[in-house]
Amino acid sequence: MAAVLDNTIETNNFALNADSLCRRLSESASVSDVTLQMRRGEVLGLLGLNGAGKTTTLRMLSGVLVPDSGSVSINGFSMHDQPLQARAQLGYLPDQPPVYDDLRVHEYLTLAGKIRGLRSNRLSLQQSLVTEQCMLGDVNQKRIGTLSKGYKQRVGLAQAMIHQPALLLLDEPSNGLDPQQLDSMRTLIATIAQTSAVILSTHLLSEAQAICNRVAIIHEGKLVTDQASDGENLEHIFQGAIR
Amino acid sequence: MIATIAGLESRRLFRSAHTWVMAALLAALFGFLFLKQLESFLSLQSALAAQDHPIGLTGFMSVRYLEPLALAFTLVAPLFAMRSFSDEYRQQTFALWQSSPVSASSLVLGKFIGIFAALTLLILLCAGMLLIMKAFVDIDLPLLLSATLGLMLCTATCTACGVYFSTLTQHSLIAIVASIALLLFSWLLGSANFASLPIQFIRELSIPNHLRGFFQGYIQTRDIAFFLLATGLFLGLSIIKIDSMRHTGQ
Prior knowledge:
The complex is a heterodimer. By secondary structure, chain A is an alpha/beta fold. Helix content of chain A is 36%, strand content 24%. Chain A has helices spanning 2-5, 54-62, 83-88, 105-115, 120-133, 149-161, 179-192, 205-211, 234-242; strands spanning 16-24, 30-38, 43-47, 69-74, 77-78, 90-93, 167-171, 197-202, 214-219, 222-228. Chain A has a six-stranded mixed β-sheet with strand order 6-7-8-3-9-10, sandwiched between helices. A four-stranded antiparallel β-sheet of chain A has the order 2-1-4-5. Chain B has one domain. In chain B, 82% of the residues lie in helices and 0% in strands. The A-B interface holds A 4, 23, 25, 59, 62-66, 84-85, 87-88, 90-92, 94, 96, 98-103, 111-112, 114-117, 159, 169 and B 1, 4-5, 8, 12, 15-16, 91-103, 246-247, 249.
C-alpha cells in the first residue's frame, strides 16, 4: 500500500510509456501498434475522426481496458505487473464524467481522494485546491445531479486531478463547456501540465492548437502522426495525416 | 479501502427513496406478524405448557415469527443489492473504479458489506421486537441469538447472490428477477420430495433445510459452512466478472 500512496516522481521515468498497443474490439473497430512516450510538462492532443480509436486508446492507457498486446507503464509502474501502483499515478476523465448524482460535490471529491489513497490533512488540502482550481466553491454543497453539464464536467476533472497524478487523461474535456468555461479549462490544463503529463482527446483542432504542445493523430486505429505542435497550421497537418 | 466503499454504498442506499419505502413495508410486516403470532401464543399458551416438552414464548416466536421473515429477507436482499453494479454500468460511473487503485475484490467486498450492514439494521429491528418482551417475560436469549444468526447468514447469502447478478447486467430489473428466481428455487428444493439419489444431493442446496436448525436453537457447523460457502461463491464469481471486464471491454 505504501507504494500505491507514493506519488514520488522518478525523474528518469517517463510519465507514460506505452509500447505497441493493440486492441481489437470488433470487425470494424480496433487500435493497432500505438506507441507513446510522455514526460511531465507535455500536453498531448490526441486527434482523430469519430471512431478513429481515441477513446479505446485512452481506455487502454487508463487501465480500463487491457490491450491484446503491448504494454503500458505509468511513472515507471507497469500496468500489467503493478496495476494498483500504476493506476495510483493517473487521473482519468472519460467522455461521460463518472459522477454520482446523489452525492454532494464535496462528498464526491472526498471519495475520489480516499480511493486514491489520500487521507486527513493531505486530503483536505488537495480537496480545497481542486475545488478552487476547478471553480467549484459555489456548488460545493450541492448535489451533483442538480448541476449543469459544464459543472459536472468540472467535478469530473477535479476527481481526476485530486491526487496530483503523473499522467492526466482527458477524453473530450471541453464537452458541455461554454466559451468562458472553455477558457478557464485551458488555463487549468496549462497549470496542471507544470507537474503532470496531460493527454486530451478532442476533435476540435482549435482546442488542440490552443492547449497542446504536442499532437498525435489517430486514423483508423493507427497512430499516423506524433509531433510537436509549434504553431504550424494544424488543419494542414491533420488533413495530410488522414488522407 | 473496503471501509470507504462500504460507507459509500450504505450512504447511497439510505439516500434512496426506494430503500425507505422497502424498510417501511418490512417494518409493517414485522409488526403485523409479531402481533399476530403473539396473539396466537397467548391463546395457545396453556396447551403449549401442558406438552411433554413445553414450548416457551421465544421458541414459539422463533419458529412462527422469525422463520417466515427469512423468506422476506430472501426477497428483500436482492432488492437492496440490485443497484450495486447495474447502476454503475448504466450511469457510466464504473470508469471511476476501473481507473483507480482499487482491486476488484475490495470493490465487491466493500459493496457487499455496505448493503449487508444496512440489512443487518433491519434484522436487528425485527429481533429487537422480541427482545423488548424481556421486560415482561423470560426470554430464551441463546435461542434468540441462534435465530438472529440464521437470519443474518441467510441474508448474507441472498445479498451476495444479488450483488453477483448485478455485476452481470446494467438492467437492475433483470438482476433482481434472476437472483430472486434462483433463491426461490433454492427455497422450493427444501419442500420437494425426490426419491433418486442425485436429487437428494441437490436438496442439500436448499436454504430452508440449512436454516431450520437455527430457529430451533441447533447451530450446526454444516449449516454455517453452507451459508458461508454460498456467500463466498457468489462474491468470488462477482470478483471474477469485474476483473474480466477489463479484458472483454464490457
